[in-house]
Design goal:
The chain is mainly alpha-helical and 154 residues long. The chain contains eight helices and no strands.
């Protein structure tokens, strides 16, 4: 029985486009492997990528200017072009805002909360990520006795 693997949702250029691209591309490449499409010709993989990427990113692709040495018929060159176009679009302050504003939701386990904090921290470029995650947990603790105990831990 063949698995029904789904394409990733459209690439969002909002928030942190560089990080969004990195995560979207990872999901897309996993999809190609799962569907056994990695050996297909570059034209096919480019068509799949551009069909899956969404209208906002496709519009961006349509305005790419290709320099000498860049080939819009090579899958790796198309990926590299997106990488180059989006790499300068990091919004570290926005990513950090999202990290510090994130709150544990009702019914969310601590492990789920911790995983989400670590995921958000990836795009923050903290020099001491573990310390930032720890601090966020301490600052987010609503139980005053527990917070006080955590604040006095070395």
């Amino acid at each position: 029985m063949e698995q029904d693997f789904k394409l990733p949702e459209y690439l969002s250029l909002q928030g942190n486009p560089s990080e969004n691209w990195r995560r979207w591309l990872q999901r897309f490449e996993l999809y190609l492997v799962a569907k056994e499409k990695t050996k297909k010709p570059d034209e096919t993989k480019i068509t799949m990528l551009l069909s899956a990427i969404g209208p906002e990113a496709l519009k961006r692709y349509n305005h790419f200017e290709w320099s000498e040495g860049e080939d819009n018929t090579k899958f790796d060159d198309v990926k590299a072009k997106f990488e180059n176009e989006l790499a300068g679009r990091k919004r570290i302050v926005f990513s950090r805002y999202q990290f510090w504003e994130y709150s544990k939701t009702a019914g969310q386990t601590f492990d789920e909360f911790l995983t989400q904090l670590r995921t958000l921290a990836l795009s923050c470029e903290f020099t001491e990520t573990d310390n930032m995650v720890r601090d966020k947990i301490v600052f987010s603790t609503e139980d005053p006795a527990l917070k006080e105990r955590l604040l006095y831990e070395p």
